[in-house]
Specification:
Layout: H1 4-16, H2 20-27, E1 28-36, E2 42-43, H3 45-57, E3 59-71, E4 75-86, E5 91-103, E6 106-114
Parallel strand pairs: 1-6
Antiparallel strand pairs: 1-2, 3-4, 4-5, 5-6
């Protein structure tokens, strides 16, 4: 049985280092399902890779803080503060919770909970 606390810690460390795509490639399953709040889920690593690359590619600078994380039976949760400066000049500060369901040592489902940014 994979040590979810260790996996979650390693994944979160990559995010804190600004290596989001490295974290995605290392820790996400080929059949990953990702969902933003109540938006329709996006299935498959290729589709989510494109979506993630577009989002992170639009950011000029970021400051990321991990407030805490928790591990349950096959699930992990992390609470974040993201301060993002986008290339188009927008600046966003948001708190987000990532809820991850794991299977065979990889994230199989991830849902992000946050207040929508205007």
């Amino acid at each position: 049985m994979p040590d979810l606390a260790a996996l979650e810690s390693q994944l979160n460390q990559l995010i804190l280092e600004g290596q989001m795509m490295a974290a995605f490639e290392r820790f996400y399953a080929e059949d990953i399902v990702m969902q933003e709040n109540t938006a329709p889920p996006v299935s498959g690593k290729a589709r989510n890779r494109e979506r993630e690359q577009a989002f992170f590619g639009s950011i000029a600078e970021s400051k990321i803080q991990l407030l805490g994380s928790a591990v349950g039976d096959g699930v992990t949760y992390s609470e974040w503060i993201f301060e993002l400066n986008f290339k188009d000049g927008r600046r966003v500060c948001m708190t987000e919770v990532s809820a991850r369901r794991w299977k065979d040592g990889l994230v199989a489902h991830e849902r992000f909970y946050y207040d929508p940014v205007a």
